Amino acid sequence: MSTVIKGGTIVAADRSYEADILIEGETIKAIGPDLAGDTVVDASGAYIIPGGIDPHTHLEMPFMGTTAAETWESGTFAALSGGTTTVVDFVIPGEAGMLAALEEWEGRATRQASSDYSYHMCVTGWSEKHFDDMAKVVDRGINTFKHFMAYKGALMVNDDEMFASFQRCAALGALPLVHAENGDIVAALQQKYLAEGTTGPEGHAFSRPPEVEGEATNRAIMIADAAGVPVYIVHVSCEQSHEAIRRARQKGMRVYGEPLIQHLTLDESEYFNRDWDYAARRVMSPPFRNKLHQDSLWAGLAAGSLQVVATDHCAFTTEQKRFGLGNFAKIPNGTGGVEDRLSVLWTKGVETGRLTPNEFVAATSTNIAQILNIYPQKGAILPGSDADLVVWDPKLSKTISAANQKSIIDYNVFEGFQVNGLPRYTLSRGEIVWADGQNSQPQPGRGKFIRRKPFPAVNAALSKWKEVTAPRAVNRSPEHMPIGV
Ligand code: DUC
Ligand code: ZN
Ligand code: ZN
Ligand code: ZN
Q1: Could you give the ipTM of this predicted complex?
Q2: Cis omega (within 30 of 0) on the bond before 286?
Q3: Measured between alpha carbons, how far is 348 from 258 in angstroms, rounded to an integer?
Q4: Nearest Cα to 30, choosing from 11, 4, 10?
Q5: Contact 176, 147 (CB under 8 A)
Q6: What is the DSSP string of 415-480?
Q7: What's the confidence (pLDDT) of residue 462?
Q8: pTM, entire model
Q9: Which ligand has the nearest atom to the CA of 334?
Q10: Which sequence positions carry the modification called N6-carboxylysine (predicted)?
Q11: Which of 59, 124, 285 should be mutated for ligand 1, with most atoms under 8 A from CB?
Q12: What is the DSSP letter of 362?
């Protein structure tokens, strides 16, 4: 059985061109003019883009005394309906450690996922067991480790723990990810605002100003430099953080920055002079910022100092948000976005001229695949790549509304947004899994775990301290080397 996608314009990260795509089984077999296949998918008048990759989701995550309500079943189908064919979710170890948590995540994902998926492993403390478990996690096909510099008393790691973990990442060829907010200052500001009687959702924004993000981003980058490892900063929301990333990149460090579609398009006015539910539904960390910060993020995407656009999809119901009535610090942090990332970015980015269609593809798919080391299996339209393809119709439009979304949450932070550009078809490994207007259904269990190998790249530290001590011992056993290196 073969499928040919005919009549469209292929938009890759590096160029756009007209060609047909022949798919055999789950992969792309050929690209060229006048190809024939058993089934024809009509792409006339449309673009063909590589399936979106959302590098940042929290499906069914236990967090802040509750569990994110978006399930693997609803979240991954919502993703496909919006043109995202792979999600990368965060595994949070509990008392039983990383490997036990991984089993839990795998249990949920294998049964429920309609889209392909991968994981990042969170490092929430440090011990000899963490040191050992990280190697086992890498052997399981996970090459990224996430560190929270915020959420004091819960997920937060201190600098010594982060430095130990970063050094371990360097030795394993893994990439550390960082949630960069100064958790000590956030905790102090939360107490201050609560003591002053500011208990509503606006207190959330006041207690997490851009300075706490800028400080932590700088610190994470310097610790990464000391450890000689690249670093990826998640949900970059402000100029202070973006500036730190720009500066490091200019010095030759591999530092990556990930803004979210929410921070690009929603601003701090969402928290002020609103009814409680409206504002609380938009409480996430970092909070939404003002227009100057938004402009900085858009500029970074165009200039390449920020590389990817994610969602941090971590969706709670209104009822769950109300756990924080009377105390903003207890409002579960998180918003949705996995369904709408591509259409909102197309409308607010490409249609406005801020991004080219090729930059759009780079930020939603190709750059992510490269940074996470799954390119060109994912993120590419090339012979041999997985046939994760979206027939992207710039003339399809809709008004975003919770009333007709695939997400099972009772609201949508983009409610009322008019978007142009939607998938006519989404193909996952060669199969049409979403067709506009055709009542597509989730296929729980269809999604596959995507293994990610360690990286060839390390950062030769700019810091000099290692040169005057012992040379760094890098443990690179052959199974930790990517193919071709
Ligand atoms: N921020 C959120 O808003 N939710 C999940 C975790 C995070 O860091
Ligand atoms: Zn040991
Ligand atoms: Zn975070
Ligand atoms: Zn997150």
Answers
A1: 0.90
A2: yes
A3: 17
A4: 4
A5: yes
A6: TT-EEEEEEEEEEETTEEEEETTS-----TT---B------S-----S-SHHHHSPPP-----GGG
A7: 72
A8: 0.95
A9: 1
A10: 146
A11: 285
A12: I
pLDDT, residue 247, reads 97
Q: Is the peptide bond before 210 cis (omega within 30 degrees of 0)?
A: no
Amino acid, res. 109? A
| Size of the chain in residues | 485
* 131, β-bridge pairs: none
Residues in a beta bridge with 146: 122, 177
Give yes or no for a contact between 213 and 233, defined as CB atoms under 8 angstroms apart: no
What letter represents residue 253's amino acid? M
pLDDT, one tens digit per residue, over 352-400 is 999 999 999 999 999 999 999 999 999 999 999 999 999 999 999 999 9
User: Ligand 4 center to residue 326 CA distance, Å?
Assistant: 25
Tell how far the Cα of 386 is from the centroid of ligand 3, in angstroms: 29
CA–CA separation, 379 and 313 (whole Å):
20
Ligand 1 within 6 A of 183 CB? no
Calpha distance 267→185 (Å, rounded): 22
Strand partners, 179: 148
Q: Is the CB of 118 under 6 A from ligand 1?
A: no
Rounded-to-integer distance, Cα 393 and Cα 434, Å = 13
Q: How far out from the chain centre does Cα 13 lie?
A: 18
